[in-house]
């Protein structure tokens, strides 16, 4: 299989022979389209798939696909390569000639090259070489051969011509051997015998020189005539090449035609050239190379001089691709041939059994041909190129109408002529005469040309540069023959034929005054084509060609250009500034069309956009991802380059927020503080004592300070004693104490006469002290005990008896008020209607409702908790301080 | 002849996108000129701007076809691709199936593609993915819908259908009168 595919194939063969290919799989059809490996792909592929049933059909398919592109290529290639081949063939021959010093046999050797019908065969060989147009052109240029023949050689030629037919071949070869200098780069030798054989086979060797000329000319003609068939598809180069190839390929046929219908052919071809003059010109334009101009000018001038000196005679060239050099060479060849012809014709005219009239004509025509040739040379010296080429070629053709005839006659009579030895009759004299004539004619021609030049210059000065065609016409108008010329140009084909037929005849029979009018015409025609004025114009137009033509400027100019191109390069329909539409109109048109088109385009683009939107929605290719990407890209920043700017709002994000935390702490603290704050508590609740302490402590108010101290000391002992007693008191003791208490209290109350202010916790202590004092008064140790021991159970039983007695004695006065209490406390044992029995059960009963108690408790509790905490804290603080 | 409505365009693009995906864009936004879709007789035509302009000279009832018919809208306003759209789908197709020579004929007669006829398939072809069908010589033959994904295609037995037939170039002969 083709490597291309293999490389791109990512296929893997599965067990079931299913290939799985990637997305990048390149299909063969695409390859076909790209035209890279057309045939190889198809063939290779077919080879690969062995079990391919419909391989043939596939092949057909692929073939049918492929050829469409290649064929055109082939055609083009074929054309160019045909040219190349032919050229090379020619060249081979040339080189061969050079090698053996044979005379120019190229035209004849061209014959072997395939005729146009053999394209198919040629195409195969053409496939081999990839020579492009340019390379072909180069090759052609390099293959150009140049023959230089001196006058002496010509004389020799003439002599030899007049000599026996057996010498003919030698004669043909001799000039070449003596003077032929073939400028060529490639040397491929072909067997000279072959060449000769081919030459002899087709035409007489003598004709070769002329044959070549004629061939060339005919090839020109032929190319011209055969052009239309090729013109359609080919480019300019291709066209010219094609024409060339055609012409060269058609040589054989032409030659054969020559033999059969020479006069007609000449006459036919001549008008055609005039008709196709424009095309020819076109080709020349395409082929002409500007650098060649100067070169050819120099060359032309030098060669002209040489020619005039009679040193060099002619050159041969391979193709008429339009270079002036070649043209000139051709001319020289013509000259040479003419000379040759002259000689031969003269001889022929007298000796050959051919048409005497034609011979006469030829003879007569000689001067004129010479003249024309000389004029051509003059033109050549002016260095006019492609345009002139066409005309000059035409001239050549028209002039050469004489030579072809002679040639044809020779060709026809070739063998016979060979057989019949031609005697040389005053050759040298004749030659000299002719030469003189020729020189004279040349001078005359030069003068004429000079005059024409002046004329043209004058005319050109008047006429604007771009209106070359116009100027031309003006010049012709001034010419007396212009009318005829115009007629000529206007004459249709048939008439043209006759005209040119006449022309050829006229040219031949110029000295004869049989057809003066026609002669005039022809002279006019001659002038039309070979007059130097024209060449001048062409020269100028040559320069103009590369100048910017104002009528083709701008948009209107473009339109004009298009119009012009529609006519082709037809000079008759050249568009100058007169045909230009006014710019305003065009602008208006443009505007109108623009409006319309804009409106249409607007609609269409709108529709397109709408479609694209729908497509997006269909494919879910929304803009969102792109937008997000863009935002992402926007958001991305180099963090290292990022600096905190406190003034910027968006930089707040970089700030650390400590406030909420601190606030929380603060609030917490506040809350704590609040919580720690002591709720205001009514202290009355605490000091609301049911017992009338005022009365109880009233008696102690009279106690002294000294006693107090004692009491304090005593008290300590008593407290200790009491604690001990508490641990080991019995029910009996309690009872006794109770009785004591009950006895003591009435005493205290009686004795107290001072105001008592209660302060918190000290109250009890103070009361204790008071009680003690009181008791100390009476009974220093017992009193406080009783008062201290609110509860009779805590009373000491050690001094029970004494206390009882004393209290009974002391409090006799105050018993009356608190008789109930006294009685209740007096008695240890319960008695009937005992107070204690009544109070006791009340202890178990709720003093208030449960809710009230609860409320009280809650209030208390909070206060208690706070109290506790305070104390706790204080204790902690103390602890810390102590540690510190 | 009128431009497609948004609804119609959407329907058609949805169908087309099954075969060529986002390459539809290449059909709409072409560098070589403006091309557009036009509806005529329930058929969608893909036309260049130039031809569109030329077509304005022809009355609607006389106009049979213009440009390239991509398909038609059914009575239920669904879009059905015609084989004539193949020329535009084939170059842009994302998922392809190549038929063995033996399977070609069957497909060109309008049958579904069996596993036995399957020569090659693009990897990662999903089920019910629109595929363009080629011969092994890379000649586009039509298009269809993948009945199974690539992995399943490997496993299934030879007689099971792997691609549902949608259109094939045999229709040019079979349905000559229908194709416009």
Automatic annotation (TrEMBL), chain A:
Residues 214-223 have a biased composition (Basic residues). Keywords: RNA-binding. Residues 301-312, 323-332, 354-366, 425-450, 503-517, 568-581, 591-609, 650-666, 705-718, 769-782 have a biased composition (Basic and acidic residues). GO terms for molecular function: RNA binding. Residues 35-84, 98-140, 158-226, 238-274, 297-332, 350-458, 503-609, 650-677, 698-748, 766-817 are annotated as: Disordered. Coiled coil: none annotated. Residues 177-189 have a biased composition (Low complexity). Residues 49-59, 119-137, 531-542, 798-811 have a biased composition (Acidic residues). Residues 400-411, 728-748 have a biased composition (Polar residues). This is Nucleolar protein 8. It comes from Coilia grayii.
From TrEMBL, chain B:
GO terms for biological process: ribosome biogenesis. Residues 95-170 form the PUA domain. The keyword Repeat does not apply. GO terms for cellular component: nucleolus. SUPFAM superfamilies: Pre-PUA domain (SSF88802), PUA domain-like (SSF88697). InterPro entries: NIP7_N, Nip7_N_euk, PUA, PUA-like_sf, PUA_sf, Ribosomal_synth_fac_NIP7, UPF0113_PUA. CDD domains: Nip7_N_euk, PUA_Nip7-like. Keywords: Nucleus, Ribosome biogenesis, RNA-binding. The keyword RNA-binding applies. One of its GO terms (molecular function) is RNA binding. PROSITE patterns: PUA. It comes from the Eukaryota. It is found in: Nucleus, Nucleolus. Belongs to the NIP7 family. Monomer. Interacts with pre-ribosome complex. May bind to RNA. Interacts with NOL8. Interacts with FTSJ3. Interacts with pre-ribosome complex. Required for proper 34S pre-rRNA processing and 60S ribosome subunit assembly. This is 60S ribosome subunit biogenesis protein NIP7 homolog. It comes from Coilia grayii (Gray's grenadier anchovy).
């Amino acid at each position: 299989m083709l490597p291309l595919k293999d490389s791109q194939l990512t296929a893997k063969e599965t067990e079931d022979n299913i290939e799985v290919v990637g997305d990048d799989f390149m299909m063969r059809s695409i390859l076909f389209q790209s035209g890279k490996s057309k045939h190889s792909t198809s063939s290779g592929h077919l080879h690969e798939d062995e079990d391919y049933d419909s391989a043939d059909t596939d092949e057909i398919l692929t073939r049918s696909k492929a050829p469409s592109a290649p064929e055109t290529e082939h055609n083009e290639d074929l054309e160019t390569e045909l040219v190349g081949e032919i050229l090379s063939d020619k060249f081979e021959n040339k080189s061969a000639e050079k090698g053996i010093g044979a005379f120019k046999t190229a035209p004849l050797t061209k014959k072997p090259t395939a005729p146009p019908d053999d394209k198919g065969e040629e195409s195969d060989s053409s496939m081999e070489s990839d020579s492009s147009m340019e390379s072909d052109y180069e090759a052609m240029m390099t293959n150009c051969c140049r023959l230089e023949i001196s006058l002496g050689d010509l004389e020799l030629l003439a002599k030899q011509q007049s000599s026996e037919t057996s010498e003919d071949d030698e004669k043909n070869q001799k000039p070449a051997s003596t003077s032929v200098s073939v400028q060529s780069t490639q040397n491929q030798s072909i067997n000279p015998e072959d060449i000769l054989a081919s030459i002899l086979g087709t035409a007489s060797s003598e004709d070769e020189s002329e044959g070549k000329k004629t061939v060339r000319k005919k090839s020109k003609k032929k190319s011209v005539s055969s052009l239309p068939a090729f013109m359609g598809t080919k480019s300019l180069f291709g066209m010219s090449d094609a024409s060339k190839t055609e012409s060269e390929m058609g040589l054989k046929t032409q030659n054969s035609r020559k033999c059969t219908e020479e006069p007609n052919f000449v006459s036919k071809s001549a008008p055609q050239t005039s008709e196709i003059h424009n095309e020819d010109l076109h080709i020349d334009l395409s082929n002409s190379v500007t650098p060649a101009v100067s070169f050819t000018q120099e060359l032309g001038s030098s060669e002209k001089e040489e020619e005039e000196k009679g040193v060099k005679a002619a050159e041969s060239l391979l193709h008429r691709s339009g270079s002036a050099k070649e043209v000139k060479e051709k001319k020289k060849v013509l000259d040479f041939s003419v000379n040759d012809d002259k000689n031969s014709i003269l001889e022929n005219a007298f000796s050959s059994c051919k048409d005497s009239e034609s011979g006469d004509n030829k003879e007569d025509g000689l001067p004129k041909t010479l003249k024309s040739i000389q004029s051509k040379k003059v033109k050549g010296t002016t260095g006019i190129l492609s345009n002139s080429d066409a005309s000059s070629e035409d001239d050549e053709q028209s002039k050469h109408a004489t030579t072809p005839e002679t040639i044809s006659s020779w060709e026809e009579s070739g063998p016979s002529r060979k057989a019949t030895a031609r005697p040389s009759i005053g050759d040298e004299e004749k030659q000299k005469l002719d030469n003189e004539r020729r020189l004279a004619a040349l001078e005359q021609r030069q003068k004429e040309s000079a005059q024409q030049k002046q004329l043209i210059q004058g005319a050109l000065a008047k006429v604007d540069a771009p209106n070359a065609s116009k100027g031309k016409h003006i010049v012709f108008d001034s010419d007396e023959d212009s009318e005829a010329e115009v007629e000529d140009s206007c004459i249709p084909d048939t008439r043209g034929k006759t005209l040119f037929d006449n022309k050829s005849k006229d040219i031949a029979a110029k000295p004869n005054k049989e057809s003066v009018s026609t002669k005039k015409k022809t002279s006019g025609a001659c002038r039309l084509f070979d007059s130097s004025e024209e060449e001048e114009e062409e020269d100028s137009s040559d320069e103009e060609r590369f100048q910017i033509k104002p009528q083709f400027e701008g948009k209107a100019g473009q339109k004009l250009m298009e119009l012009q191109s529609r006519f082709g390069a037809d000079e008759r329909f050249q568009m100058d500034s007169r045909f230009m539409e006014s710019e305003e109109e065009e602008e208006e048109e443009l505007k109108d069309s623009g409006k319309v088109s804009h409106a249409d385009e607007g609609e269409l683009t709108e529709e397109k956009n709408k479609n694209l939107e729908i497509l997006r929605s269909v494919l879910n290719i929304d803009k969102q991802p792109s937008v997000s990407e863009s935002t992402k890209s926007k958001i991305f920043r180099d963090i290292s380059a990022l600096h905190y700017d406190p003034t910027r709002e968006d930089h707040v994000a970089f700030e650390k927020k400590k406030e909420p935390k601190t606030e929380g702490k603060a609030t917490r603290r506040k809350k704590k503080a609040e919580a720690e704050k002591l709720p205001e508590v009514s202290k009355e609740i605490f000091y609301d004592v049911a017992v009338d302490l005022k009365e109880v402590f009233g008696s102690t108010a009279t106690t002294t300070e000294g006693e107090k101290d004692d009491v304090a000391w005593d008290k300590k002992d008593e407290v200790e004693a009491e604690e001990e007693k508490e641990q080991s008191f019995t029910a009996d003791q309690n009872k006794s104490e109770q009785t004591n208490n009950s006895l003591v209290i009435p005493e205290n109350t009686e004795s107290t006469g001072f105001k008592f202010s209660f302060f918190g916790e000290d109250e009890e202590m103070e009361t204790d002290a008071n009680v003690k004092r009181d008791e100390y008064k009476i009974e220093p140790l017992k009193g406080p005990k009783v008062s201290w021991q609110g509860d009779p159970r805590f009373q000491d039983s050690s001094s029970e008896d004494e206390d009882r007695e004393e209290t009974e004695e002391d409090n006799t006065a105050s018993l009356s008020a608190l008789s109930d209490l006294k009685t209740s406390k007096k008695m240890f044992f319960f008695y009937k209607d005992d107070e204690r029995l009544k109070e006791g059960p009340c202890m178990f009963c709720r003093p208030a409702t449960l809710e009230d108690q609860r409320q009280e408790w809650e209030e208390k509790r909070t206060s208690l908790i706070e109290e506790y905490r305070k104390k706790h804290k204080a204790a902690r603080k103390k602890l810390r301080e102590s540690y510190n | 002849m009128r431009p497609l409505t948004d609804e119609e365009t959407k329907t058609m693009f949805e169908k087309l996108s099954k075969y060529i995906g986002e390459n539809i864009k290449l059909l709409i936004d072409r560098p070589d000129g403006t091309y557009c879709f036009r509806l005529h007789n329930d058929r969608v035509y893909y036309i260049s701007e130039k031809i569109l302009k030329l077509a304005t000279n022809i009355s609607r009832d006389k106009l049979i076809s213009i440009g390239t018919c991509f398909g038609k809208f059914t009575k239920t306003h669904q879009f059905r691709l015609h084989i004539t759209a193949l020329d535009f789908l084939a170059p842009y197709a994302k998922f392809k199936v190549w038929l063995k020579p033996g399977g070609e004929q069957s497909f060109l007669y309008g049958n579904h593609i069996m596993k036995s006829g399957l020569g090659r398939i693009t990897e990662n072809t999903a089920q019910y993915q629109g595929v363009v069908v080629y011969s092994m010589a890379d000649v586009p033959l039509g298009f269809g819908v993948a009945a199974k994904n690539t992995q399943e295609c490997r496993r299934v037995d030879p007689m099971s259908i792997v691609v549902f037939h949608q259109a094939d170039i045999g229709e040019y002969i079979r349905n000559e009168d229908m194709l416009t």
